[in-house]
Design brief:
This protein is of the alpha/beta class. It has helices spanning about 25-30, 55-60, 80-90, 110-120, 145-150, 170-180, 190-195, 200-210, 225-235, 240-255, and strands at about 5-10, 35-45, 65-75, 95, 125-130, 160-165, 185, 215.
């Protein structure tokens, strides 16, 4: 494997991310040097870590060759023209975290729908976090997959969408949403590293055979190191048809963002 892109990582301005202290842009850059990674998506998560101002985060991202910036959005604090401002600044996508609303997409449903509609008009990629587990007080009480379907159904068209973490432990169920909708990609960040010694890894191998044009690979840095991610990306795609492996490791990411090979 000579080329690899990281579809979902979270470097910070201060280096702090939840309980970790090694999440700075400099930390990420140092880890990249020892891997085949040639770029990826730096994704901010407001309220979880210190990603600085949108301007600071974008500027820091631009110091990483081959990386694009994706802005985390808190719909509760959404203001008019925010997405168009982010687009004009140079952001290539946004990320939504329904888990932080405790009731998933059913909380602030109209706001989520408006954000997704606006993103489609502005040609911004939309990441949707599909990791729904945590403290029982934070978990949605309805199926998150069908909450998302209910949210999307009234829309005339979808933006390019990325199901971040691929549905996590519900990987195969969420993969069907990607399979039948050309706008939707399945990102395996966090899940790839977390489930490396479980039967879920075999499910990921299965998807590599069946949905190679839909998959994206990511580290979820700093939750997992870039080196571990690169090792597992190689393990996951080892023995695959050369074209399928190339789709999964880098072509799908480049196509998603309209980048040249």
């Amino acid at each position: 494997m000579n080329v690899l892109y990281d579809s979902n990582c979270h470097p910070t301005i201060t280096g702090r991310f939840l309980k970790k202290e090694n999440a700075s842009f400099a930390d990420l850059k140092a880890e990249l040097a020892a891997t085949p990674l040639q770029g990826g998506a730096a994704v901010s998560i407001p309220g979880v870590a210190d990603h600085g101002t949108p301007e600071e985060f974008l500027q820091a991202t631009r110091q990483l060759p081959g990386f694009v910036a994706v802005a985390g959005i808190q719909v509760e604090e959404l203001r008019p023209k925010l997405l168009s401002e982010l687009k004009e600044m140079g952001y290539r996508g946004i990320k939504l975290h329904p888990r932080f609303s405790h009731e998933g997409f059913d909380s602030h449903q109209s706001s989520y729908r408006s954000v997704i509609e606006e993103a489609a008009k502005l040609d911004l990629v939309v990441y949707i976090c599909t990791m729904t587990f945590g403290r029982y007080t934070e978990c949605p009480t309805e199926d998150p997959l069908f909450q998302l379907v209910r949210l999307l159904k009234p829309l005339q068209r979808l933006p390019r969408m990325v199901l971040a973490h691929g549905g996590y432990l519900n990987l195969l169920r969420w993969s069907e949403l990607a399979r039948f909708n050309p706008e939707i990609s399945l990102d395996l960040s966090y899940t790839l590293c977390y489930a490396q010694n479980s039967s879920l890894f075999q499910d990921m191998r299965f998807l590599c055979q069946r949905l190679d044009q839909k998959l994206l690979l990511g580290s979820d840095f700093p939750e997992f190191s870039v080196a571990e991610f690169a090792r597992l990306a190689h393990s996951l795609t080892e023995g695959l048809d050369e074209n399928k492996a190339a789709n999964i490791t880098h072509r799908n990411f480049l196509k998603l963002y309209g980048l040249s090979t």
